[in-house]
Amino acid sequence: MPIQTFRTVQEMRAQVAAWKADGLKVGLVPTMGSLHAGHLALVKAALKKTDCVITTIFINPTQFGTGEDLDSYPRTEIEDSAKVASVGGQAMFIPTASEMYPTGFSTRVTVDGLTEVLCGAARAGHFDGVAQVVTKLLNQAHADVAFFGEKDWQQLAVIKRLARDLDIATEICGVPIVRDDYGLALSSRNRYLNEEEIAIARKLNVVLKKTAYDIAAGGFASEVCAGAVNALLEAGFQKIDYVECRHSETLELVECVNDTPCRIFGAAHIGRARLIDNSLVS
Ligand code: AMP
């Protein structure tokens, strides 16, 4: 069956209600489009756990700050729908900005604490925009399960928290990071990079993995992370927003790991791109 495209909440809800009436489980995969194998891994994970999967494309203006790449963010709707269809996804939800934010829209969603560190510190208001749009998508779709990538670990933690705090019935499921052959996490923003910059970008995961290893071996996190910042600058990154060891759920800073579940989080600028990645400390 050809892939269906919903432009309005009403159309999507009618189909979800029909699927549910037939006893089918519904999965939701929110994205901003420009889809790559990382996004398709979410669709495939969704197809394993649910019967009918809706992939959403909405380049949400409220999560972009001034001077960020909202206007130049790649828009490839036709190719994106074909890619989702090729892995078996049943439907796309591609709303307009006015469908999402009608005149008079005035509600904010803020998750305290978790959003004040890491990318939240570097990108003011970003997670308010993410929390707002994801809350809306979850309420619009009423899916059984929604899927988010572990590449954006902080985003996943924020979404799990808001779903719990606001009693949203949809289960939130994380999906492991998809990387290229050199370990670079796939990202829509990698397309901003030239060959030389890609070679530098591929060092981010190597440095974060080594940082995780050194901390697991007993190093003091603050010292090892400071070394990692220097290593990234030496590798050719222009600016490092952070390299930090934090608790996987609460995102609190961790100095000595012991048995604490934690990860190394990194964000670094190269060329026109700001890249993020994270690595488990085991
Ligand atoms: P985006 O379109 O960048 O907003 O991403 C949409 C979803 O895809 C988010 O849940 C991301 O975490 C996820 N995602 C993006 N890149 C990857 C990747 N390389 N591996 C796994 N998930 C990813």
Structure characterization notes:
By secondary structure, the protein is of the alpha/beta class. The chain has helices at residues 9-21, 37-49, 77-86, 97-100, 119-122, 126-141, 153-165, 195-201, 203-216, 221-235, and strands at residues 4-6, 26-31, 52-57, 91-93, 145-149, 171-175, 239-247, 262-270, 273-281. The protein is built from ten helices and nine strands. The strands form two sheets. Strands 1-4-3-2-5-6 form a six-stranded parallel β-sheet, with helices on both faces. The longest helix is centred in the middle third of the chain and has 16 residues, at 126-141. It is globular and about 55 Å long. Bound molecules: adenosine monophosphate. Adenosine monophosphate is lined by residues 31-32, 38-39, 41-42, 148-149, 151-152, 175, 177-178, 185-188.
Described by strand count, sense and barrel closure, the largest sheet is: 6 strands, parallel
User: Distance between the terminal alpha carbons, to the nearest Å?
Assistant: 44 Å
Strand portion? 15-25%
What does the radius of gyration come to?
A: 19 Å
**Category from helices, strands and their pairing:** alpha/beta
Enumerate how many helices there are, as a single number. 10
Order of helix and strand elements from N to C terminus: EHEHEHEHHHEHEHHHEEE
Helix content: 25-40%
Ligand roster: adenosine monophosphate
Oligomer: single chain
Shape: globular
According to DSSP, the number of beta strands is 9
Q: Main sheet: which strands, in order across?
A: 1-4-3-2-5-6
Low-confidence spans = none
Mean pLDDT over the full residue set = 97
